[in-house]
Fold this sequence. Notes:
- By secondary structure, the protein is mostly helical.
- The protein has helices spanning 2-14, 18-31, 40-64, 67-91, 100-111, 115-128, 140-162, 172-181, 183-197, 201-234, 240-267, 271-282, 289-296, 302-332.
- Helix content is 79%, strand content 0%.
Amino acid sequence: xxxxxxxxxxxxxxxxxxxxxxxxxxxxxxxxxxxxxxxxxxxxxxxxxxxxxxxxxxxxxxxxxxxxxxxxxxxxxxxxxxxxxxxxxxxxxxxxxxxxxxxxxxxxxxxxxxxxxxxxxxxxxxxxxxxxxxxxxxxxxxxxxxxxxxxxxxxxxxxxxxxxxxxxxxxxxxxxxxxxxxxxxxxxxxxxxxxxxxxxxxxxxxxxxxxxxxxxxxxxxxxxxxxxxxxxxxxxxxxxxxxxxxxxxxxxxxxxxxxxxxxxxxxxxxxxxxxxxxxxxxxxxxxxxxxxxxxxxxxxxxxxxxxxxxxxxxxxxxxxxxxxxxxxxxxxxxx
Length: 335
């Protein structure tokens, strides 16, 4: 009961936070039929700015950190992303009305990472005064890329088995290259490299950091509008996608919380780092994943995996996931 009451209290308090409030606000205006929209160019710019800020801070912190402290979390992140995809591949295609390609694509998208959810979690932890290693956001690509690659490979293996034994060629190098060239990962990696090999402290403090919260509110508003619009697409496919999108993010985050706790015991990984690792695992890619899967799994129905992710997965990861893992950390680590 203490967990439920603490979770409810944390959730109510987060309703007043800009991240969740703007997300819900976007869904409400879309539900009321408003024609409010944010131009794609502005949306792209906002995402770039947010990821550059996250990457710059991560790069500056990695420069000061010991390699040994980062290595195990990197391996754990990749493992969690792959486990999520393998679990989804085992569950979703077995459900009525779910095609193998659609199930694997959905699992891949939920194994990948959402930049917006990560950004929202960073603001929440800073607001709550929960400290974490600044390099933790740099775990993003180490979970994101393996999950997307594994999903595409699994579809290739499935097609090989079902098309008369004809071997389907899978270009691992091309998949990695396409993922790295994606706008989200490119911006994040650029920020990390600049923070690691240059000294951008002044421009970070005077430009990127002060704009972070305001730009995040715009991103949450856009995601709220898009989430409501995607609901209509999700109604046209198997309802199992909606059920999966509601339950899976929370379970994925709990899996990562357990892994993070083991890292805490073995390496001293901070409670804030455990929370962020959980949020990363609970999130589902909203920027880099969809175009990668469209190209890598062309037979999959985007309405299924993008609809499940945007309309349900992202709101659940932000609205329920972040308060849940924050509350668990408060109990487990006595924050």
